[in-house]
Design a protein that fits this description.
Layout (H helix, E strand, L loop, with lengths): L1 H19 L6 H14 L7 H30 L7 E2 L13 E3 L5 H9 L3 E2 L9 H8 L4 E4 L21 E3 L2 H13 L1 H18 L2 H15 L3
Parallel strand pairs: 1-2, 3-4, 4-5
Helix pairs in contact: 1-3, 2-3, 4-5
Length: 224
């Protein structure tokens, strides 16, 4: 009975992400979601330890995979067939296999992929300042990331970049589609954002900048 309840919880959350576009950003949010379902639908059959264990797994592992797949579904269902899916797992599903490219080799190969793509989509819903942001922008590519509430963002990219000025973020499926259509249609607007993003990254995210900051902080610490 318990395994059936847990399976139902996982499947229902998958439907929520894809159809209702409801993301849960925090561990506490997952605990609350499971507690409510446990109380109203399952007669409190799950213990508090079971609730915490499932919430932890959904927050750390499951949710990211669900959103990764939902994002691909949104794009394909909207008719975006000029799509390339990098990473493991895509080839195993017939729906995604035609677009599966396998893992991308880091370095020159990955940089060329970013340059060739009109849009590189971020799908991390825990950390906005992922390596893909900097790699894409430094390669001269256009990056669009998933919005994460600042209070739930483990490493907030907005401490370095400014949304709407040199960074584009999408909040849900409707917002994603609107911004994709806009930037794919308007090459000038897309290139303008590319140039602004790359300029900001070159200013704030280089070893020279980090060393300057380090020396400044060391000199402050070493003052009598």
């Amino acid at each position: 009975e318990i395994s059936g309840i847990i399976y139902d919880l996982y499947k229902d959350h998958q439907v929520q992400v894809y159809e209702r576009e409801k993301l849960i950003y925090s561990r506490a949010g997952f605990v609350s979601y499971i507690q409510q379902r446990n109380r109203t639908e399952y007669g409190n059959q799950l213990s508090e330890n079971e609730i915490k264990a499932v919430a932890e797994d959904m927050h750390i592992w499951y949710d990211a995979r669900v959103f990764r797949q939902a994002l691909a579904d949104w794009l394909l269902d909207a008719g975006f067939t000029n799509l390339k899916l990098y990473g493991n797992g895509w080839k195993d599903n017939p729906k995604y296999a035609p677009y599966a490219m396998g893992p991308a080799e880091n370095g020159v190969t990955l940089s060329k992929i970013y340059q060739a793509a009109k849009v590189s989509l971020g799908n991390n819903i825990r950390v906005s300042a992922v390596a893909r942001v900097w790699e894409t922008m430094l390669s001269g590519g256009f990056y669009m990331g998933c919005y994460i509430p600042p209070e739930e963002d483990l490493t907030d990219v907005r401490k370095i970049l400014r949304e709407g000025e040199n960074l584009v973020m999408y909040r849900d499926r409707k917002d994603l589609m609107a911004k994709l259509h806009y930037y794919l249609k308007d090459d000038a607007a897309r290139q303008k954002m590319v140039d602004k993003g790359r300029k900001a990254v070159l200013k704030y995210m280089t070893y020279d900048h980090f060393v300057d900051q380090l020396l400044d902080r060391l000199s402050e610490q070493m003052k009598p």
